[in-house]
Write a structure and sequence with these properties.
11 helices; alpha/beta; homodimer; about 40% helix; Nucleotidyltransferase, domain 5; five-stranded mixed beta sheet; about 325 residues; globular; six-stranded mixed beta sheet
Chain lengths: ~325, ~325
């Protein structure tokens, strides 16, 4: 009987313990209390300050605010960049967060708060969030693709994030999908997947298509470098032929990288998330994937929409620290 | 004292137990006794007969021959095709072995011999062999690339083969490295890595290069469809300019797929094996990889030559069954 009560208590602890989830991006920091794989509060947003010290202070400040009204058992931080999860340090720089590389985030925040802290690459955190919240716990291999300005990938194998030999697994934005040396990626390499399949890839495709056209021929013509993702997707929605053509080619480019991941990892399921996900035509993407993947792999492959959307990073990071805490209960 | 002796015995059993390793290819079956990650006998070779029943009989016949002179504790079979390792059945067809798909190889051979049998995809078996024999047991992630007529990949993570959700992980010969829809692969898809980076890819590149040239300009000209890998590599060795150009482009194509695997899996080490491995210029390949991979991944990435060569499949398959037996000791 005593055992039964103790196991009930464990179960309550495991599902009801709250943690702070923080998503640290180049322009803003989002934070919310997370409990049982979902947000327990509205998220708070702060603009990302310049410099590592100020970023850490901003996170601590958000934490203090939430602690006034909530019990917080730990802090999970999803950040851009390559993260050494053992030390909780960003080891690979990200252009969006100058000075962030080399900051021992976990150590600093643990010392200042006396709470357990987990720091994770943002695409990995989102992947873990989708895995935990999306009813996907029976999956052997889940590949979560974050489509935004760039492309990030998180890989969950047998319930655990696969992080590679040097914490850099899933840097799939930089898989090479063409031999042409045609598009230069922001990383300095040519023909990276994200130079085609991410938001900026869509814009580059549209620029190529409307080059030399007049505004009578496409509303995207003559915009030069001021062309944006929003302009292309909005024009496509209004029926602009060239914008629709750009969207179709974007799906081909998206598919090219996914075909590669399908043949390498043979996942049960792809989950798409990120700001560009809303523009994905799932019927078209599935058709392209079936067409370009070995039948054995294609016929059992699911492609799903994210269940957490922009909250995936916060929820995943918080759930990672919660799962570590409860594994020790 | 009794414990010590028992553990000594365990250790002897674990390193000295022999198994039969069988490598089952489209043209020949090779088999040898394997002990402690190396061949304990000369391999025997048989031409691969037509039809699943005859293939199974040929394997049983080879086993009987070896059993006359050797104690055999188990049988490891490396075969072309996608293998369900739980059932020991080939579940994905291979054009080279008609009728092989759906054969419950493991069940048949276990029933006929009363020995434990492990059946594994050949690229996976080679990868496991390299992992066990190559001093690579401390590696977090090892990617073994078999370069032959096609390309096969085996992935070892934390000492275990990663086989995917439907046993098809590492079908990397079919990752897509170009957007051009230019080269049709034998699988029916366009622009698969092996249509460029395998032996037949090298030949296709050479054909493109010498198209329209005369025999005065290149010894490869005018050969049409009779051009072979051997002809290209031999001409390159003799200094033929176009053959050397084909070899240089082949390295670029090889690199394209490896860049993708590096950014996806972030391995410690690539190992190259297979019939085409002998033609790889490792200095050139390393230079290309450094040039086309994110520095964080490239700077710690090793590229090694196989230590087992053509024996990798036999040794890996046998070692897999031995490791299963000794795990149960």
């Amino acid at each position: 009987m005593a055992n039964l009560q103790s196991s009930d208590l464990d179960s309550v602890l495991k599902t009801k313990m709250p943690a702070l989830g923080v998503d640290l991006g180049g322009t803003k920091i989002s934070a919310a209390v997370v409990c049982d794989q979902q947000l327990a509060t509205e998220p708070r947003l702060e603009p990302t300050p310049h410099g590592a010290d100020k970023i850490v202070e901003a996170v601590l400040c958000l934490l203090s605010e939430f602690r006034k009204e909530h019990l917080i058992a730990g802090v999970g931080i999803a950040t851009a960049g390559i993260v050494n999860v053992d030390t909780g340090e960003v080891v690979g720089s990200t252009g969006n967060l100058p000075g962030w590389e080399g900051t021992p985030i976990r150590t600093i925040i643990e010392r200042r708060t006396m709470l357990p802290v987990h720091v994770e690459n943002d695409a990995n955190a989102s992947a873990y969030g989708e895995f935990r919240a999306g009813g996907l716990r029976d999956k052997r291999c889940l590949v979560v693709i974050t489509l935004g300005t760039g492309i990030g990938v998180g890989i969950v194998v047998d319930g655990r994030l696969y992080r590679g030999a040097h914490w850099a697994a899933g840097e799939c934005g930089h898989i090479r999908i063409s031999l042409d040396n045609k598009r230069l990626c922001t990383c300095g390499l040519f023909d990276c997947w994200e130079a085609y399949g991410a938001g900026r890839g869509l814009v580059a495709t549209a620029e190529e298509l409307v080059c030399g056209l007049t505004e009578d021929q496409s509303e995207l013509a003559g915009k030069g470098k001021s062309l944006t993702t929003q302009a292309v997707t909005a024009a496509a929605a209004r029926g602009d032929i060239m914008a629709r053509r750009a969207m179709a080619i974007w799906h081909e480019h998206l598919c090219a990288g996914m075909v590669t991941l399908a043949h390498t990892l043979d996942p049960d399921c792809f989950v798409l998330t990120g700001g560009m996900e809303q523009f994905v035509d799932y019927a078209l993407l599935s058709e392209l994937m079936t067409d370009r993947t070995l039948p054995r792999i294609a016929e059992k492959l699911e492609i799903r929409r994210s269940v957490l959307g922009k909250d995936g990073g916060m929820i995943g990071a918080a759930q990672l620290v919660l799962d570590q805490i409860t594994a020790g209960v």
